[in-house]
Amino acid sequence: MVPNKIGISDVWYFIAASVLLYVCQFLVFFIPFRWYIPLFTDHGKNSREKITVAKTLIVRKALLRGLHYLPWKGKCLVQALTGKVLLKMVHIPGVIFLGVAKEDDRLKAHAWLKSGNQFICGQEGHKSYTIVKEIS
């Protein structure tokens, strides 16, 4: 079995994911949702690349590596926004799903990102949420 080697493209995507996690965290904390969400829509543009497991895996690995080195826990919305930008970087489409669920008379929210049938982030527990918005 050949060990996984980290190539220069892996390092590039890790750096991009790390920077984007900080930027998206700033947006979520300080900017109203309606102001920044148009930045993450595809505006009907067709992707130039076919969705492949390999490309979605590149984005997923870069996102997970970036999250590992954050000094805080990256929430699902920040992960989904960052992943969406990373998907745009590899020219494949992605859809951010925003969902809500009621638990103990309180509303809970969750965000997850999919590209085709592949989950990029937020897969854990997504089935218990009702989708209220899709950002593609």
Topology readout:
Elements: H1 8-30, H2 33-36, H3 53-68, H4 76-89, E1 95-103, E2 106-115, E3 118-121, E4 130-135
Antiparallel strand pairs: 1-2, 1-4, 2-3
Helix pairs in contact: 1-3, 1-4, 3-4
Word description of this protein:
With 136 residues, this protein is α+β, with helices and mostly antiparallel strands. It has one domain (8-135). The protein is built from four helices and four strands. The protein has helices at residues 8-30, 33-36, 53-68, 76-89, and strands at residues 95-103, 106-115, 118-121, 130-135. The protein has a four-stranded antiparallel sheet with strand order 3-2-1-4. α1 crosses α3 (53-68) and α1 (8-30) crosses α4. The longest helix has 23 residues, at 8-30. The radius of gyration is 15 Å and the shape is globular.
Extract low-pLDDT stretches: none
Characterize the quaternary organization of these chains.
Answer: single chain
Structural class: alpha+beta
Mean pLDDT equals 90
Radius of gyration: 15 Å
Helix content: 40-55%
Globular, elongated, flat, extended or rod-shaped: what is the shape?
A: globular
- The string of secondary-structure elements, in order, is HHHHEEEE
- End-to-end separation: 39 Å
Strand content: 15-25%
Main sheet summary:
4 strands, antiparallel
- Annotation field: number of helices: 4
Provide the spatial order of strands within the biggest beta sheet.
3-2-1-4
Tally of distinct domains: 1
Total DSSP E strands: 4
